[in-house]
Specification:
Strand content: 25-35%
Helix content: 10-25%
Order of helices and strands: HEHEEEHEEEE
Radius of gyration: 16 Å
Number of helices: 3
Largest sheet: 6 strands, mixed
Bound molecules: inosinic acid, magnesium ion
Shape: globular
Distance between the termini: 11 Å
């Protein structure tokens, strides 16, 4: 899908995002009641959010990454998801939290969750910076959501368009 390179207004500032990460961190601490957690970030988009979230969690924490990509022609996903980089560690019996940048159609995450569930962790939850529920196709929901957004193509804070804009220290969107 071709996008303009016109960057819109700021939707969420770094300060707002950090504050939200702190709230979610407190929620996670409460929900897991002192048990260790195993954070799995999805490359590459989730790294900036993951850095905030991991600092906000007081529990004993392991950090790992996966890279999954869903194949499709142009703007439509076929639902075929490939794991391009697998975990380094063993998640058997652990409390896994997948850290995602955005849940859009949900296709990638649905497959990733099933793929990880096969390894029999103790639990799996999903923590996403952004949620675009109006675009959902797959039957999947995040457990911890930074912010819900309308149907905009967002950039910054890890999110890219054509590999650009990931370094913006805030979330914005591309016009039309
Ligand atoms: P899904 O499988 O459709 O949920 O696709 C999720 C992936 O598509 C995300 O992890 C992002 O990498 C990418 N994506 C979806 N919406 C946006 C957006 O608005 N901006 C940047 N990337 C997006
Ligand atoms: Mg992604």
């Amino acid at each position: 899908m071709e996008k303009s390179n016109i960057v819109g207004n700021i939707l969420f500032t770094e300060e707002q995002i950090r504050q939200r990460a702190a709230e979610i961190g407190r929620q996670i601490a409460e929900d897991y009641a002192g048990e260790p957690v195993y954070l799995i970030g999805t490359l590459r988009g989730a790294v900036v959010w993951m850095a905030d979230i991991m600092k906000a969690i007081p529990n004993e924490t392991e950090v790992d990454f996966v890279m999954a990509s869903s194949y499709g022609s142009g703007t439509t996903t076929t639902g075929v998801v490939k794991i391009k980089k697998d975990l380094e560690g063993d998640i058997y019996g652990k409390n896994v939290i997948i850290i995602e940048d955005i849940v859009d159609t949900g296709t990638t995450l649905k497959h990733l969750k099933a793929y990880l569930a096969d390894r029999n962790p103790k639990s799996i939850r999903i923590c996403t910076l952004l949620d675009k529920p109006s675009r959902r196709i797959a039957d999947i929901q995040a457990d911890y959501i930074g912010f819900e957004i309308e149907n905009l193509f967002v950039i910054g804070y890890g999110l890219d368009y054509d590999q650009k804009y990931r370094n913006l220290p805030y979330i914005s969107y591309l016009e039309g």
